[in-house]
Amino acid sequence: MGNNLLKGKKGIIFGALDEKSIAWKTALKCYDEGAQLVLTNAPVALRMGEINKLADAVKAPVIGADVTNLEDLKNLIDGSMKHFGGSFDFILHSIGMSLNVRKGKHYTEMNYEWNQKTMDISAMSLHKVLRTAWDMDALSEWGSVVALTYIAAQRVFPDYNEMADAKALLESVTRMFGYYYGQKKKVRVNSISQSPTRTTAGSGVKGFDGFINYAEKMSPLGNASADDCANYIALMFSDYTRMVTMQNLFHDGGFSFTGVTGAVIEQMEK
């Protein structure tokens, strides 16, 4: 049972694919905390049918949108405002897709046309979402936008491939749009750099099991789960974080500031 942390607030959740996804768990958490929601995903994801289970659970409409298409985004924002009866308070951007990773292209041999699509879907889509909300005056004053990212934007994780570049761009959009939206309407825009998480999308990264085990050994608190992340996102949507903006917030059990741990040394000495 929630604590009405988001009572009276309304928002859009992008990217809920299935029960493993952070966006899915965030929708459940926000609903539990009293929020009203609209769910959205790409048409190809909607055809999987999973999101309808979530929609029933959180009593939310599902409005499909291709995040690279401004007309789709206008229809989404317009439909959401009609559903909510006006402006709304928060957006979760939980979107990422790499064609080069999917098709097994090494970073040094990437297909640049695929790379452009990766950047558009995984990073510039945030700019397009924010621009559309800006143009339509859709976000209420003191609203909150959260985008999910990963520490590969700052450090080299070879198998993360071009998604590292996409996340770096995503974080830049967060800062830049956060500046302008803060000036205009006190809307705050932040990114959350989450631990590697066993989602359907995350598990597609080469060497993921080794990746997640290493992070577990490197994090004093262990890896943050998808449920932990959902809790943090709900907090970021609440009024308790009204003065936090343009930040990349590490939610990784301490991984980001740990040089080495006893567990890692012990493993290396075996």
What is the CATH C-level name?
Alpha Beta
Count of extended strands = 6
Percent of residues in helices comes to 40-55%
CATH architecture label: 3-Layer(aba) Sandwich
Shape: globular
What portion of the residues fall into strands of 2 or more residues?
Answer: 5-15%
- Indicate how many domains the architecture comprises: 1
| Strand numbers in spatial order across the main sheet | 2-1-3-4-5-6
Determine the CATH topology: Rossmann fold
The Rg value, from CA coordinates, equals: 18 Å
Give the helix/strand class.
alpha/beta
Tell me the series of helices and strands, N- to C-terminal: EHEHHHEHHEHEHHEH
The CATH homologous superfamily is termed NAD(P)-binding Rossmann-like Domain
Topology readout:
Layout lengths: L9 E5 L7 H11 L3 E5 L2 H4 L4 H8 L11 H15 L3 E6 L5 H4 L9 H24 L3 E11 L13 H23 L2 E7 L13 H11 L7 H12 L10 E4 L10 H7 L2
Parallel strand pairs: 1-2, 1-3, 3-4, 4-5, 5-6
Main features:
270 residues; alpha/beta; Rossmann fold; six-stranded parallel β-sheet
Q: What does this 3D model show about the protein?
A:
This protein is α/β, with parallel strands linked by helices. The protein has one domain (10-268): Rossmann fold. Helix content is 44%, strand content 14%. It is built from ten helices and six strands. It has helices at 22-32, 43-46, 51-58, 70-84, 99-102, 112-135, 163-185, 208-218, 226-237, 262-268; strands spanning 10-14, 36-40, 88-93, 139-149, 188-194, 248-251. Strands 2-1-3-4-5-6 form a six-stranded parallel beta sheet, sandwiched between helices. α1 links the parallel β1 and β2. α1 packs parallel to α3 (51-58) and α6 (112-135) runs parallel beside α7 (163-185). It is globular and about 60 Å long. The termini are far apart. The mean pLDDT is 94.
